[in-house]
Amino acid sequence: MSVMQIITLTNKQGMQVKVSNWGATWLSCIVPINAGEHREVLLGCKTFEQYQQQDAYLGATIGRYANRIAGAAIDIAGTHYRLVANQGENQLHGGKLGFDKLLWDIKNQSAQKVTFSLISPDGDQGFPGELNVTVSYHLTDENQVVIDFQATTNKTTPVNLTNHAYFNLDGESSKNILSHTLKVNANLYLPVDKQGIPCGDLTDVTQADMDLRQPRLLSDRLLESEERQKTGGYDHAYLLDKTQPIAAQLISSDKKIVMNMTTTQPALQVYTGNFLQHTPNRHNGEYDNFAGVALEAECLPDSPHHPEWAQASCFLQPDQAYHHQTTFHFFT
Ligand code: BGC
Asked: What are the residue boundaries of the structural domains of the chain, listed by start?
């Protein structure tokens, strides 16, 4: 039986990334800034037990379906499948025993790259089909963390894999990310209700003060818009403008670190850590709300119920290969 392991990747610029086979989780990301100064930019816990207890999905690989499926049920070709609900009547992040809580196998490993694999059996959390998944983390010498997701299935099933890292580019122990600047190249976002379930069509970002196309302070009117009041901050999917070279850019409040994000995924969930309070941190203490921001590249929430969002379809067929890649590129 496999045991929980920690794998450390380092590059020639002295950047260091730690990952674990538990949940194929990204544990740590230390970025060298200048002579002697290093910054931990990822939220994380001190012990493995704390990782198992927290419910913020810190750094984890999320599957089989990231974000929510309303009513925890789907229909595929006339067959009704009941999924495991874990947030009221809905399913969040793959169910009670999502991929974030499983021990993955280590398929291969080198100084700058590791690949994890997992077999999710037919019926896992209610989903049809055996899903074979691999997730790899590659730290390049250019200070990029490239996360690659692949999957195949033997029955049609929804697949939506992402990474749930929370970033704080001021350093993980600084108070919050409210003075960070965020830019997201998206013209449309998805309105949701208080439960985070889509409740309308894709909407122009200018309609409800959700525009992030110009770099914007995260604190800017954060809880003044009705949309963000419902969710306690940003917790919204943006449909990415694929004509733009990057999906998003996050800048620390002291401007010492810039993180560019690119992805093959159609959408980006921006979540400002609105409910992070009481999550154990790395220093025997607890994080507060807004301690980090998660930028989750994925397809749209609840898309199995919305065939009209064809540009973000999530169904994987047995004769197809799922392949997505997301890159976080750090500049100092
Ligand atoms: C969701 C939030 C949820 C959080 C859990 C995010 O991906 O969008 O609604 O509270 O995950 O940590």
From this structure: 6-178+250-331
Give the model's pLDDT for residue 35. Answer: 78
Dihedral of CA atoms 301, 305, 309, 310 in degrees, nearest 10, equals 120
Q: Which atom of ligand 1 is nearest to the CA of 276?
A: 12
Element at 62 (helix H, strand E):
strand 61-62
8 Å CB contact between 300 and 77? no
CATH number for region 6-178+250-331: 2.70.98.10
Q: Has 306 been annotated as catalytic?
A: no
What is the pTM for the complete model shown? 0.98
Supply the pLDDT for residue 2: 66
First to last CA, the chain: 41
Write out the E strands in 185-321. Answer: 186-189, 203-204, 216-217, 235-240, 248-251, 258-263, 267-271, 293-298, 315-316
pLDDT tens digits for 33-54? 987 899 999 999 999 999 999 9
Mean pLDDT of the 193-206 span: 97
For ligand 1, whether the C-beta of 275 sits within 6 Å is yes
User: For residues 137 and 135, what is the distance between their CA atoms, to the nearest angstrom?
Assistant: 7
| Active-site pick, 172, 180, 296, 306 | 296
Torsion angle of C-alpha atoms 64, 70, 76, 80, degrees rounded to 10:
110
C-alpha count within 13 angstroms, C-beta hemisphere, residue 32: 13
Give the C-alpha separation, 299 to 256, whole Å: 31
In degrees and rounded to multiples of 5, residue 50 shows phi and psi of: -65, -40
Which tens digits make up the pLDDT trace of 224-260? Answer: 999 999 999 999 999 999 999 999 999 999 999 999 9
